[in-house]
Write a structure and sequence with these properties.
The chain has two helices and eight strands. With 105 residues, it is mainly beta. β4 and β5 form a beta hairpin. It is globular. 19% of the residues are buried.
Length: 105
């Protein structure tokens, strides 16, 4: 199947976001699970993506651990459902860091 077939079937989704002029510690996107199977998230222009570490129950900032070409892979709600919870979805959120503008895909 070509890329357009996946897009028509709802299997591929491209989202982008931009945030600017934020307060120092503002939640830009509240905690959530993405609805699909997997989310591929290239490194954003500024830090802010946090994933909840289930074992510890604390939010962990992801971007500082990434190299320039790294991609974050998040398990999503549909994958959690079809595996009966054997693979847990990645609960995540986005916060502002230092009030820096942030661009992401």
């Amino acid at each position: 199947a070509g890329a357009t077939d996946f897009t028509r079937a709802g299997l591929v989704e491209l989202n982008g976001s931009h945030s600017g002029n934020c307060r120092e510690e503002e939640v830009l996107m509240h905690e959530h699970l993405d609805p699909g199977f997997l989310t591929l998230e290239p490194r954003a222009s500024a830090a802010g993506l946090q994933v909840l570490e289930g074992q510890v129950g604390e939010w962990r900032m992801i971007e500082p651990e990434l190299g320039p070409g790294d991609i974050v892979v998040l398990a999503c709600e549909a994958l959690q459902r079809v595996t009966n919870g054997a693979i847990q979805g990645s609960l995540h959120r986005v916060v502002s860091v230092g009030g820096q503008p942030r661009h992401s895909l």
